[in-house]
Amino acid sequence: MYQKIKKDAYILLHPELGDSKWDKFLNAFILTLIVLNVMAVILETVHPLYEKYKTAFDIFDLVSVIIFTIEYILRVWSCNVDKKYSGSVKGRLKYMLTGGAIIDLLAFFPWYLHRILGFDLRILRILRLLRFLRLFRLTAYTRSAQMIFNVFNSRIRELLLSLLLAIFLIIISSCIVFFAEHNVEGTQFTSIPATLWWAVVTLTTTGYGDMYPVTAVGRTLTGIIMLTGVAFFALPAGIITAGFLDEMRIIRKGKTYKCPHCGGDITNHVHKHHLDDGNS
Fold it and tell me: Which residue has the higher pLDDT, 198 or 127?
């Protein structure tokens, strides 16, 4: 009975595993609550509005914290249904150190820190911004958001490499233009660190116009750098696109299970059966 309740709670908290009315209701409820929390954080920055409805904002925040706390506790309690987190203590600790669990914790834990330790108002304002992390919890309740997470997770090495190359390009561009422009009277390229801002704006083709070269050599180099930036910064987009294509292929090739009697999709029921096997 205990294991059945735990398995039911686990499935209820993971929408991709269940397809009952309660699964859909909880999914919609948590999604709505997360969106309302983000809206509340945004509206609280409108000082007259916050002062007028301060009590309502505080009550809503309290109710949200209670709900998210209960959900977090249930997630930690039921996580060892999954074979990855097997073990009463070790499995739960392993789950609590995952990125998703840490985001879940940070979404409500600052509230308790303020109530227990009594931070001053300035620190509280900073901690309140952590409630925006609740927005990232949408990945646990929307399959398309989970797919985006999978894409970035599978392409993390390529994206980090492209980021590293971008940093190198920014530094090299800053050095080249600084040595071409730093001797000009009244130049804004006074140092390589000051030129880094210009390099970022130029390579991303934003072009604020607050810093620009005036010498022929500097302008020629800038033209080459801008063309390089257009081509180079398309690299991450290509990596992400390839990741999406791979993820779509995996989804389309995913095995589905059909009922031999009615022909209906029973994939979710098979997944539940696998969970039972993992706890037998």
Answer: 198
Cβ-Cβ contacts under 8 Å for 30 (sequence gap 6 or more)? 71, 137, 141
Rounded-to-integer distance, Cα 50 and Cα 46, Å: 6
Q: Which residues of 179-218 are buried (b: 16+ CB within 10 A; e: fewer)?
A: ebbbeeeebbbeeeeebbebbbbbbeeeeeeebbbeeeeb
**Domains in the chain, number:** 2
Is 172 in the same domain as 243? yes
Terminal C-alpha separation, the chain: 13
What is the pLDDT confidence band of residue 270, given thresholds at 50, 70 and 90?
very low
Q: What is the mean pLDDT of the chain?
A: 77
Domain residue limits at 257: 142-280
Residue 46 carries which DSSP code?
S
Do 218 and 86 share a structural domain? no
- Over residues 136-195, the pLDDT tens digits come to 655 555 566 667 777 878 888 888 888 888 888 889 999 999 989 888 888 888 888 889
Q: Which of 123, 141, 159 is the last residue of a domain?
A: 141
Statement to judge: residues 128 and 154 lie in one domain: no
Collapsing DSSP states into helix, strand and coil, what is residue 265? strand
Q: Which amino acid is at 250?
A: I
Assess whether pLDDT exceeds 70 at residue 276. no
Distance CA 72, CA 92 (A): 12
CATH number at residue 259: 1.10.287.70
**Count of positions (residues) in the chain:** 280
Angle of the 235-253 helix axis to the 143-154 helix axis, nearest 10: 120
Residues 214, 166 share a domain = yes
Q: Same structural domain for residues 160 and 229?
A: yes
